[in-house]
Amino acid sequence: MGKRNRPGRSPSLARRRYSRRDFLKIGGAGLAGTAMLGAAACGPVADENGEATRIVFSFGPDDSGTLQDLVDRFNQEYEGEIEVEFREMSRLTDEYFRDLTSDFRAGGGDIDVIGGDVIWAAEFAQNGWIEDISRRMYTDYEPQVPDAFLQAPITSVSYRNSLWGVPWFTDAGLLYYRQDLLEDAGFGAPPTTWSGMQDMASQIQEEAGIEHGFVFQGANYEGGVVNGLEYIWNAGGNVLTGNISIIESDRPRSLSPDVINIDSPQSARGLQTARSMITDGIAPEEVVEYQELQTHETFLAGEAVFMRGWPFMYALAAEEDSQVSQDQIGIAALPVEEEGMRSWSCLGGWNMYINAASDKQDAAWEFIKFATAPEQQRIRALEGSFLPTISELYDDQELLNQVPVVELARNVIVENTRARPVTAFYSDISGRLARGFNNSLSGEVEPEQVVQNLQEELENIVG
Questions:
Q1: CA gap 299, 316 in Å, rounded
Q2: Dihedral, 384, 387, 393, 399 alpha carbons, nearest 10
Q3: 390 DSSP 8-state letter
Q4: Calpha distance 400→97 (Å, rounded)
Q5: Which residues contact 257 (CB under 8 A, 6 or more apart)?
Q6: What number of helices (H) and strands (E) belong to the chain?
Q7: Integer Cα distance of 78 and 67 in angstroms
Q8: Which helix or strand (DSSP H or E) is residue 346 part of?
Q9: Which of 123, 280, 119 has the alpha carbon at shortest distance from 212?
């Protein structure tokens, strides 16, 4: 099906490459029992001159090489009908966001399919920048939409009783730990509470001479927002409810208008726990400036017992310069304040959206169906460790065997993920949260004052 095989691609994977017409005949049979999404085509999409319709797909740089392969496979399958141009955008999500919004405000730009962050859907939808694809999702998808995807990713594209995108790949916050060090210290299981983690970390720091007990992303940026939310949620607190949807059998159902509820003892307690990591000597002072790079470099250098990280960080332990091997690493759900509380991890990942200004929406839809289909998600999981959004792929034993992080993270991804506040004002809210969480973590402002200030600031934004 593809034009070429990348080095290291298994023969068994190559044998699974079927033509688009074969998929339409067999319904995707053999792909771990999963039917191909979008088996019902929209009909011919070549232009009036019989030439292939050219569409532009935007996304950031892809170091894995799997994205260009995906585009190549599509272009071969749809040769003479549709041709996709991959337009590489900024690696920095904030810059990518600004470039898109600048194009939207100038009339929409020439991008047809947007590979977009999970947090963009509500704001883009509210401004009329992306297309409502509810009809396409409920009539041109097989199996039925609510059952096909994990709950958190499909919720991330739902806003005001409509679906605005298709989940592409997902992420969630995980607790990484040095399994070898825990076993040497006599611990038979990872911690389930923050206090338990601190006790383990402190003991291992002393006995094994490890410099840091725990590292995480605490800088004043979107990753700091994600970490702060996890501390708040896992203490029983919240930030905002509203404009979120529960996916039912037929349509998303909107729950309530925007309600800011961050000013609570639970939220303050969560931020206090984050600060205590530094004051108790478990995390370094520098963690207030840590992003993903500093976090995984510290952990993989063997300088930390625990780390909060994304799934992609597991693959980095296989690189030559890592001082910690994959078989020394364990993965668990994030700790909570008290035993019995539910652990939550912040949803990450990316979706595919159709530019509302595009005049090639049928062709754009064909590409989205292809790119998010189970077989394509499976290939990118095998070759790039991108976690799928399709529920049934988490029961694909070959995938679980070949991509260990999928197996290790399965329960967290399937059951414990939670979306950031779903609101049309997220970009404004995010900046305030990043600053407030960082002020609390650094000790500049007390947690109780931070949540009080944020309550007022966020109410002003949504009001």
A1: 11
A2: 40
A3: B
A4: 33
A5: 242, 243
A6: 20, 17
A7: 17
A8: strand 345-354
A9: 280
Place of tokens 């998808």: 141
Say what the pLDDT of residue 30 is: 31
Rounded CA separation 282/279 (Å):
8
Q: With contact defined as beta carbons under 8 Å apart, do 436 and 450 qualify?
A: yes
Dihedrals phi, psi of 82, to nearest 5 degrees:
-135, 140
The number of beta carbons lying within 10 Å of the beta carbon of residue 400 is 17
Distance CA 219, CA 225 (A): 9
Q: Say if residues 147 and 386 touch (Cβ distance below 8 Å).
A: no
Q: Supply φ then ψ for residue 285, to 5 degrees.
A: -55, -35
Residue 248 confidence (pLDDT): 54
- Give pLDDT, residue 257: 58
Whether the domain at 19-170+349-418 and the domain at 172-346+425-462 fall into the same CATH topology: yes
Whether 254 contacts 263, CB under 8 Å: no
CATH class of 19-170+349-418: alpha beta
For domain 172-346+425-462, which architecture applies? Answer: 3-Layer(aba) Sandwich (3.40)
Residue ranges of domains in the chain: 19-170+349-418, 172-346+425-462
Residues of the chain with pLDDT under 50: 1-44
Query: Global pTM?
Result: 0.80
With helix as H, strand as E and coil as C, how does 33-85 read? CCCCCCCCCCCCCCCCCCCCEEEEEEECCCCCCHHHHHHHHHHHHCCCCEEEE
Give the pair of three-digit tokens for residue 232. 């708040």
The string over 277-311, giving b where at least 16 C-beta atoms fall within 10 Å of a residue's C-beta and e elsewhere, is bbeeebbbeebbbbeeebbbebbbebebbbbbbbb
Q: What is the pLDDT of residue 24?
A: 31
Q: For 130-264, where are the alpha helices, taking DSSP H only?
A: 134-139, 145-148, 151-156, 179-184, 194-208, 222-233
Task: For residue 143, say if its preceding peptide bond is cis, omega within 30 degrees of 0.
Answer: yes
Are the beta carbons of 330 and 258 closer than 8 angstroms?
A: no
Residue-level pLDDT at 18 = 32
Report d(CA 145, CA 34) in Å as an integer: 13
